Amino acid sequence: MVDEHNLLGWSEFEAGATLFSFEGDRANNVFHENNSIKHSVADWRVLKPIYNPAGCIHCQFCWIGCPDTSIVAQDKRFGYIDYDHCKGCGLCSSVCPTNPKSLVMFPNQMQQEEAIKAWPAKEEKKKEQ
User: Fold this and answer.
1) C-beta of residue 41 within 8 angstroms of C-beta of residue 86
2) Residue 1: which residues within 8 A CB-CB, separation 6 or more?
3) Top-confidence residue, 69 or 7
4) Which long-range contacts (CB under 8 A, 24 or more apart) does 73-81 make?
5) Which residue of 21, 66, 79, 102 could cross-link 72, Cys pair, CB 3.0 to 4.6 Å?
């Protein structure tokens, strides 16, 4: 049960303030009460990114571009997508530089195997005349 008296309101944040992810010593990963790790958004997402490792160059643009830290990198390589916190905004897919992209947005209910079969083909560059 949520104790409404302990929740912060928008008026209590300064302009440009961030919600801190951790309390105290960050090394121990004690999550702040406002951290999104305690709140899943998977129920209302319409689109989700699907990862295809075939063309991934591990540039980590998707990891940097994700506003929800839902792209998890491990050892400077693409790790996995945290679907509990991914809102399906598509930023990860939009910054992917490979052709075809290694992250493509698909309907939320589509399974990985089905999406891989429907993966877009490599786009040919148009020659300038």
Assistant:
1) yes
2) none
3) 69
4) 78/51, 78/53, 78/102, 80/51, 81/48, 81/49, 81/51
5) 79
Q: What is the CA radius of gyration of the chain?
A: 18
Cis peptide before 53 (omega within 30 of 0): no
The alpha carbon torsion through 92, 97, 100, 103 (nearest 10 deg) reads: -20
Fill in the amino acid letter for 128: E
Q: What does the pLDDT read at residue 5?
A: 61
The whole-angstrom separation of Cα 91 and Cα 110 is 19
DSSP label at residue 101: -
Beta-carbon contacts of 94 under 8 Å, excluding residues fewer than 6 positions away, are 65
Is pTM beyond 0.85? Reply is no
Q: How far apart are CA 24 and CA 33, in angstroms?
A: 12
Per the CB < 8 A criterion, the answer to whether 69 and 85 are in contact is yes
Least confident window among 17-21, 26-30, 61-65, 84-88 = 17-21
Q: Which two tokens stand for residue 48?
A: 């989700």
